[in-house]
Predict the 3D structure of the following.
Amino acid sequence: MKPHLTKEFASDVANRAIKRGASAADVVIRERTEFSVAVRVGEVEKLKQSTDQGLGLRVLIDGRQASVSGSDFSADAVTSLIEEAVELARLTSPDDTADLPDSQELATTIPDLDLYDEAIVRLSTEEQIEMALRAERAAQEYSNQIINFDGGGFESGRGLAILANSLGFAGEYRATSCSLISVPVAAEDGKMQRDYWYDVRRKLSEMDSPEVIGVMAAKRTLRKLGGRSVATQAVPVVFEPSMARDLLGDIFNAASGESIFRKASFLVGQLGEKIANERLTVIDDGTIRRGIGSRPFDGEGLPTRQTVVIRSGVLESYLLNTYTARKLGLNSTANAGRGLIGAPGVEAGNLYIQPGPYSQDEIIKSVSKGILITELLGFGVNIVTGDYSRSASGVWIENGELSFPVQGVTIAGNLKEMLNSIEMVGNDLDFRGSVVSPTLLIGSMTIGA
Amino acid sequence: MSAHIRMDAVRFFFDRYGLTAGDIDKLLAAALARGGDYADLYFEYRVANAVNIEEQIVKQAAKSIAQGVGVRVIIGDKTGYAYTDEIAFDAIRQAAETASHIARTGGSKRLVGVDATPNKLNLYPVEVPVSSIELSKKIELIKHADKAARGFDSRIREVQSSINDEIKYVMIASSNGRLVGDSQPLARFGISCIADDDGNRQVGRSGGGGRVGIDFFESKMTPEYFASEAARQAITQLEAVPAPAGKMEVVLGPGWPGILLHEAVGHGLESDFNRKQSSAFCGLIGQPVASELCTVVDDGTIPDRRGSLNIDDEGEPTSRTVLIEDGILRAYMSDYLNAGLTKSARTGNGRRQSYKHIPLPRMTNTFMLAGADSKDDIIRSVKRGLYAVQFGGGQVDITNGEFAFSASEAYLIEDGKVTAPVKGATLRGNGPEALKHVTAVGNDLELDPGVGICGKEGQQVPVGVGIPTIKISEMTVGGTQK
């Protein structure tokens, strides 16, 4: 154990900041070791290996706030970071709301959420290369229309996160992760298409096999071949899980305390109101064992928890850190995110939409004419107004059957109306990442073509 | 004088970390100990500052220091990479040893000892970088902006403004004997505000900067200018009507709407995708990919610009590359690896986010040359269409060519006149086809004010774009009005 990668070291830095004149301070220390291999057409393309460490210090002097970060843990470098933080803070404005959490809110025990897997740490270079190559081979063997790959590979990492503050909190946890991605290219009539599939887990044993990932990547790529446009019209839209999670990301941005206290969200003032169809329940949970978004304490040292954001269509809670909660006269939901630099932000834990009763097939069968969305491009989502406009690809639905691939259209609507017209929620929830959703059917959106 | 400044980055690393040219040679030899065609070391020391104002108070100030060395070994089309955040001989040698594992042929390459050479270009001769300016002076500037935005209209409420600046020293040493350095200043002012008219809330955003000193914000483009621009956008959007849906004529205003080029053709013309034959532009050199009115260049050599560099992140001088000439595809943008593998010229487009990242072919400043038409004539020629002047981000699928970029300020054109503002809408097109529909190019080329960030394979780098007013006869507009 390196002496500077400890809770004691972090606590000491926070306490030294107090001695230098800060009224409050917190310190984050991170270390992460990563390995990645990229393969392409049966060969290793890139091998990369790294270990990073960093220290971030935030100080407050009666509401004046500043932060500093560095990767040099030498005594001189740390001393100068502390001095610079205090000096910077003296130049900012007093902000009554800016402070550490109340000490009784801080985590007193650090639960083991089973986030660390020795099997990942023990993986050899050869094993990781082989998994990446197996996914590619499986995609290639699935169809002779798979002619190329635009990347793909395996990544593994392990990290240590330490947080300490001047109220006496000191916590640490370790976590691992591994991910596998395959990106095949298919061709038909001289036109190429690319798609991908992946898995990301905290435990190696929970990851889909390379073959399952490769075949899914191939299927997704092949179904884009021959895509064409349709007429401009308003139709029901089915978001498959990998696209519905994107929509859930928009809901997160709108429900984040940072958007709410700035009045930069269409959900401002809607707490307790019905904002979505009663079929929609959105939950954030930072405590799920082995969850990609799990952590025992948040970026300010509060114990993570489960928060129901939307219950049966009613907005029940925003997602808050200490600052945004105090701004709104509410309590933190332990969603403080914390990088090495800057004041804490708001971060989801594992954010998901509660699954409904329907299979994706049943949802598609219920649509007489519409579109299944499988890819979205562009950033045309306005969280302030809810206006939504993006470029899309997918599969046309005719009489409850998947009919032909669609490319080159836009879909548009407004999030407020979209949330209210969620007509069906799928049963296909899968924690492939930290923001996840089952298939969703939205009553009507405008297709532009 | 300027030659002295340019040599400073190499001296900075040698003095600060006690390294010599002999050490560098030994480290490159360690990287190639198991074989390989090429190795390089990328040293970086970066200090970044940020300060922001919100609710009329200075909410926080921040300073971060990052340092490290990335070691790369190339053999054929394979790359080994490792880095360390400790700039010391032993730590770098260990990274070199890790990176060397990509090769298994045994070391046989004869090394050329490194020799420091000055840069030819001196594109950002900033006397005092923004990162050396005292915080109180930056606070003054953002306070002016805050005041200007609030003074613009009584309906302007939440105002956030910030200055982000950095100074980055880099030193690149390669096994073919190159040893070069650069000190790269970068600064960006940004502001966003919300207009609230009885519950109708709309947002406006603006900002700019470049590889500039504080004088840029004091005299050229002031925070007050960006503030009134952001406020004007927010107020304009209060009156916005739903955007139309479907194909129509689109006129893009000059400057930042050049993001069209970045997405429609830029990424597809990066040489890695073309070497790997995964780009929709693959094999189209010499073929028409745009109307003959279109000439598109990527130019990393424009003084002061956000996307400019004296040397790219592989130590190669940047250049001006004509990508599309009178509608004909002429060249791809290349880094060391892909230029070598495709036996084409390096174009100085090898870039990386930091020492933690492997270089990739990336854009610098990408823009279309001016044409002959006046903006007014172009608008007058449209019976029914969309006039889009401000955009958020864009995205592209380089394999099928589909791209999207999202307008944040746009107006209807009816019978040759600009009329109602419309709600934000995404515009889409297909790369090799979209520019074939360009039917007019204005005489008013502008580069963007200096805010662009481009993401590729998880790496963010600063870029510039530019375009004159252009007319596209057919493009899909993603509105809600049929």
